[in-house]
Amino acid sequence: MGSYVPVTPEERRAMLERVGLPSVEALYADVPEGVLLKEPPVFTGGFSELEVRRHMERLAEQNRVFSTILRGAGAYDHYIPAIVRAIPAKEAFLTAYTPYQAEISQGLLQSIFEYQTMICRLTGMDVANASVYDGASAAAEACAMVRERRRTVTLVSACAHPDVIATIRTYCWGSNHEMRLIPEKDGVTDLDALRAALDDQVSGVYLASPNFLGGLEDVSAAAEICHAAGAKLIVGANPMALALFKTPGEAGADVCVGDGQPLGMPLSYGGPYVGFMAARAALMRKLPGRIVGQTTDVDGKRAFVLTLQAREQHIRREKAGSNICSNQALCALTAACYLGAVGPDGLREVARQCYDKAHYFAEKLASIGLPRREKGPFFHEFATECPGGPEKMLVALEERDILGGQPMGDGRVLWCVTEKAERKRLDEAVAVIREVTNL
Amino acid sequence: MKLIFEQSHPGHKSQFLPASDVPAAALPEELARKSALDLPELTEGELARHYEALAQQVHGVNKGFYPLGSCTMKYNPRIDEDAAALPGFTGVHPLQSETTSRGCREVLRQAEERLTAVTGMDRMTFQPAAGAHGEYMGLLLIKAYHERRGDKNRTKVIVPDAAHGTNPASAAMCGYQVVSIPSDANGLVDLEKLREAAGPDTAALMLTNPNTVGLFDPNILEITRIVHEAGGLCYYDGANLNAVMGWARPGDMGFDVVHLNLHKTFATPHGGGGPGSGPVGCKAFLAGFLPGSALATGGEAPCQVRAFHGNFLVVVKALAYLDTLGGEGIREAAAQAVLNANYLMHLLRDGGYPMAFDHTCMHEFVITLEKLKHEKDVSALDVAKALLDHGMHPPTMYFPLIVHEALMVEPTETESKESLEAAAESYLEVLAEANENPADMHSRPLHTYVRRLDEVTAARSPIVKYEAPIA
């Protein structure tokens, strides 16, 4: 056991003497009787490093790690180049706090500035913040940021990820604001229903493209409908899809949010990931969280600094738009490293292989009796019917070391295919599924 | 230093993927991205060198003293990093079945068991991603509780004026009106003011104990009693738990909900601003409101604040840390954190730094440089900036707000007696300079990568992304 305390008992005695106290217990003289613990709390611990390693390895071994993963639904199994793992593990990046002292934090600040720039270029938006917790909380923060004094209602597409919908619902309930769902039609947001639901109370509309079912939404049409009614459009995007498809910026969205996990973060049972937020220039001062800006130092040298802090909780306290303080800086750094490593051609290649392999697999599944219900375009996720239900099929796939799609609760299965899925494994999956569903 | 975009060369790239082994699918033109994908083009080696250059301009915990008050910048053990990097954790999809994700569930269960023992709570969620997110979650639990009871008139949250800025901001996000109560002359909760503020409209009190001036409030049982008698609940901001872990538990002080900062108290690294982890513990009567994932559980998830199960790998690191220390170890760590703070406080006070409160402190203490500012026109900022030239991170500046020209110092338990003495020497040198050549202090630091920045222009005419010069 150890506590990483670099002080010997003799030194401790000398220190106590210097501060004029008889014992360590005397440091806690203000803790009232009945609260002060006579003994430390009892729990397993106090192990050597080797024992700790064994314990953690035993826990990790109780999980299954599948060699082929055909499940997405908010967490995507992409290849992570070795360099993208190595850079964020550098001690300086790993152990620093938020860069409050710019003079000794230029490396961090510049890396965030570069990340913000890359997010703007990826999404087609004007400004981005330094990150928030994840895609779901980014969506909820975006709904709050577009709220106006007279427009307070938030509309959310029923085609969005269930965790995103639940998170937005929580944030709206928390701040006593109304949230309404816009129904699905043919696997995408029902734009006629959206038009009908908009009124002069609605501040923002959230939809995702690709949506939870994998479908690509007509974001341009949605943006026109929203703007005609004076509401802002918030688009949830998958950063990988942005390499191929029309950007939210091009489509006229006001805010673009999403989860940056596909950009170099392992699945990790759901986190840490990173929420990105980008917006039109006019909304810059409404963005929550840290923003890094460029300036100069007294010698005229280019330098970077946390800026526009008058928006934030440590200055505005209860009048701040958000309470966010710590974000996901190291994950944002990871995303920037990923984008820097693969470059424009590499990102397009990854996205293109996802697209091609997903379409290959969808076609094969359709040919054995697992068709999609919708006709619309999709990126790398799609939902299929599943005759006989998903349970037996998923077990059979697991036996072949394949994590199958996510059961959707209505008998369908949501599949995801990334660049990591080899054709022979997709063919194998198809063979297994055919066998099971024909029984 | 050049930006990554300024080092881009068309055609520089690395090959990470094999060629596609499936036929290309048609991609309708009307769906395609129109604008150029303007990302930097570098080879792997160029990228590695760029980030190494950036890393050299970052002050991490291993680079030097980092007594950033309220942030608990202790050493981040490497075994914890190794544990979180195990492929058996990183390769698990968050929606895997119960039978194929037993290890992850067990990590959360064991972390919950240990951390509820440390805090005196009954249940815990690991969904919140950071301290502020945990505060928000905690208040949502309180809101849900009052609503469930039909107690609609509890619209106010009491927050002492010394509180972290996130406290009032979290309360406002929960739709509560913030009632700020002034601290007494000793920096503690003014019981009379609290009694006046607490009433049938009180939803909760948010409190940090030890508080932000580094003092344990000896009236804590009376404080929580007053709030409970008014029908409100008591929320514990765990930012300062490092002082008392193993010695006192928020549950025993009368708190109903706590959030922890695993990235402070439980030694997980801050990552330059995150990812943290802000688990929330509560007493049994609130456990029914704890969140899940709507997708993972296939149902409604009231109080859900993000997707899935939280910053899971951060919890792995904290569990490895708890494994190492055990109950005895956390008690020893806390006591040393407090002793280190008192030791440094004495060295600085005896060397001429005025303390805001003259009392045995907990894990941190607050210097006030009001007199220096008044007499020599040397501010807390000037002193902090001068410390940069001594190779150390300065203390937290201008916080808490109730102390003028404040410097808040938290050395943590992982500093040795020797390193505290060396730090004190630097502080005293700076003070001597401030007294002898006050005018020079405004130009500090002299030896950092960049010197003082023009923050006013940065905020007035923001440049928040790189634009390539027009050729």
Can you give me a brief rundown of this structure?
Chain A is of the alpha/beta class and 439 residues long.
Question: How would you portray this structure in words?
Answer:
With 439 residues, chain A is α/β, with parallel strands linked by helices. Chain A folds into three domains: 9-61, no CATH class; 68-78 and 343-437, Alpha-Beta Complex (Aspartate Aminotransferase, domain 1), CATH 3.90.1150.10; 82-337, 3-Layer(aba) Sandwich (Aspartate Aminotransferase, domain 2), CATH 3.40.640.10. Chain A has 14 helices and 16 strands. In chain A, the strands form five sheets. Chain A has a seven-stranded mixed β-sheet, sandwiched between helices. In chain A, a hairpin with a 5-residue loop joins strand 11 (292-296) and strand 12 (302-306). Chain A is globular, with a radius of gyration of 25 Å. The model of chain A has no long low-confidence stretch (mean pLDDT 96). Chain B has 471 residues and is α/β, with parallel strands linked by helices. Chain B has two domains: 78-322, Type I PLP-dependent aspartate aminotransferase-like (Major domain) (Aspartate Aminotransferase, domain 2); 327-447, Aspartate Aminotransferase, domain 1 (Alpha-Beta Complex). Chain B is built from 15 helices and ten strands. In chain B, strands 1-7-6-5-4-2-3 form a seven-stranded mixed β-sheet, sandwiched between helices. Chain B has a three-stranded antiparallel β-sheet with strand order 8-10-9, covered by helices on one side. Classes of the chains: A alpha/beta (439), B alpha/beta (471).
